[in-house]
Amino acid sequence: MPYTLEVLLDNIVLNEDDILKYIRHLDPNKSHGFDGISVRMLKLCDFSIVKPLSIIFKNCINDGYFPLAWKKGNITPIHKKDKKNLVENYRPISILPICGKIFEKIIFNTLYNFLENNRLLDKNQSGFRSGDSCTNQLLSITHNIFCSFNANPSQEVRGVFLDISKAFDKVWHDGLIFKLKCNGVGGNMLSLLSSFLHDRFQRVVLNGQSSNWVKITAGVPQGSILGPLLFLIYINDISNNLESDVKLFADDTSLFSPVFDANLTADILNNDLVKINQWAHQWKMSFNPNVSKQAHEVIFSKKRNYVNHPDLLFNDINVKKVDCQKHLGLILDNKLTFDNHIKMIIEKTSRGINVLRKLRFHLPRPSLITIYKSFIRSLLDYADAIYDQPYNLSVTNRLESIQYNAALAITGCIRGSSREKLYNELGFESLQSRRWFRKLCIFYKILHAKTPKYLYDIVPQHQQFFNFRNRNQVPNIFCRTEFFRNSFFPSVINEWNKLGAHITNSETFSIFRSSLLKQIRPNSRNIFNIFDPLGIQLITRLRIGLSHLREHKFRHNFNDTLNPLCSCNLEVESVSHFFLRCHFYDNERLVLMNGILNIDPNIHHLDDISISNLLLYGSTEYSNNINKKILEISINFILTSKRFEELLF
Ligand SMILES: [Zn+2]
Fold this sequence. Notes:
Helix content: 40-55%
Number of strands: 14
Mean pLDDT: 91
Bound molecules: zinc ion
Structural class: alpha+beta
Low-confidence stretches: none
Shape: globular
């Protein structure tokens, strides 16, 4: 940290328009603090509350005072996992008064812009930075390791992962104030921040009961807007004078060093670990009390021969060597195959799919799709740009089967149903295409400087002035191994260069995004808001082409179906035979035909295939309401025919 004694930030300029903007942006579903002032109330007042609030804020800024009433937090304990009677199994959620949070937002913007404009925050810090994310940091870490693997001869990388326990609660207030001064914060701004930190109270609220107020003596306030930023300032100098490659994500600290010489690398890392330990003592930060968890090491290696790496020491204890380490939600294994990570997502998602299966008879299809996207597909999306291996068919298929199983669970279709037809029915792009799409979106952002510079710097420079014909092409990184070619940067540059200038030159990100989506995402088939789980399941099976009908079973090689003939023996049991011709269902068919001819007598002139399609899908010629009626008539026929009640096998 470049320490300074000069005061560079001492005040806040208040803008009433900003206050109004923040109020309008508040989420009305957020719970309110102990003062009972809700977001809904503020939104109702809208601009009439701006003036009084700005007077209060202005006085607070002039006095360097953060009101006591806004420093009281209601704590709600949220159960995380395991035994409910142990306090460590709960996550405390702190809820602060909303007016105070609006004031915090104003202070935050001034402070954050000051720090960014003066480049005071460590460039290796990815936590809570706008434009940065876990994925960005993971891309950078894994790319560096891939590059070392790709070197000739292949190099190893030692990575150390540190666990500072409950770091946010440990921040020492006087130390933080000192560091704010060192960064040039003074005057009213410093008094305001000091007042913000001191004299804070909290109480536990549960089932309408509340405990007494208790004073908090250390830490940045939980649930606050300024807390994370103040934490970054506090931890900012942890990486000063370190020789290895340090990556920070809030308090997640990791060190990496490629191995040119085993002893030298061990020395570099050991020296850095000593410095970090000294930093922690000086600033009263402590590491996980369980010493075996304070630091873990992974030796990333593609070498077949064993290399002796001297031990690393942290806090006088040998750093534990592990084969894989979960870092920012991604399991990094020592060969960067991501096998363990993929295994973990398959396990987690299959639990979710079981739940989906049980919900099918209780929820309409759009709700099931929402549940799939938010609780299952989100797990697959996370870090997919990194674990994706476009040329590895077995990994690609294993992942794809997750979404296929989810599609079966949502529709109730039979295993063996065409994946493509199922995805079309639901409007799902394949996961493989989705990863392709998401990687290109990240790459667009990297090229347009919407992610940190450390990612932009990885991309080989354009030579547009010299090579006019290929000016939209990005030169690729040299890949010695297929393994490296599979990794994010080489594979995404390859795909980018295939896109064509009309797409890569998209003016905005949203134009780029939608032109890619157009290529991969099918329009879903409509079920016209019908909530009839069994009926919709059966009609979907007919649409997809795998049902009890003998034509379907024969085509899918069912053992008990040696020919596709209907048991009426007249012809193949196809969808149109079932709906329109099989004499087993003559009575039910009278109801069916009466129903649809009532809707439109002209249907009479259509051929059998067209009528069958109309019965399965409705038609764009009719309104949604009429289509809904048509599908209900088909479902009624399907159910009263009792054709689909026996067991499938
Ligand atoms: Zn028949």
